[in-house]
Design a protein that fits this description.
The chain has about 80 residues and is an alpha+beta fold. The chain has one helix spanning about 70-75, and strands spanning about 15-20, 30-35, 50-60. The N and C termini lie far apart (about 40 Å). It binds zinc ion.
């Protein structure tokens, strides 16, 4: 990912992680959100598609991390407590 790259509402999330949101018109301060791979960046209820998302920290989905696959599979096959 390039430095200073941002995403707009409607863009597809290509990396799960924590993103900083900058709102249009400064109606609220910047704040972090988590966005998950495969979803789309949402519109803001207030500034609509003026919101901008910049990646703060990339975080891989735990389900797609090979070292957790076995444990997740065991949880899925065991009966609920
Ligand atoms: Zn907004």
């Amino acid at each position: 990912m390039r430095e200073g790259e941002y995403f707009k509402p409607g863009d597809k999330v290509v990396r799960s992680g924590i993103y900083n949101v900058t709102h249009g018109g400064g109606h609220m301060p910047d704040h972090p959100v988590t966005c998950m791979f495969g979803k789309h960046f949402p519109k803001c209820d207030d500034c609509d598609d003026a919101a901008r998302f910049t990646l703060i920290s990339y975080a891989k989905d735990v389900d797609s991390e090979p070292c957790f696959k076995l444990a997740i599979g065991k949880q899925a096959s065991s009966p609920a407590p």
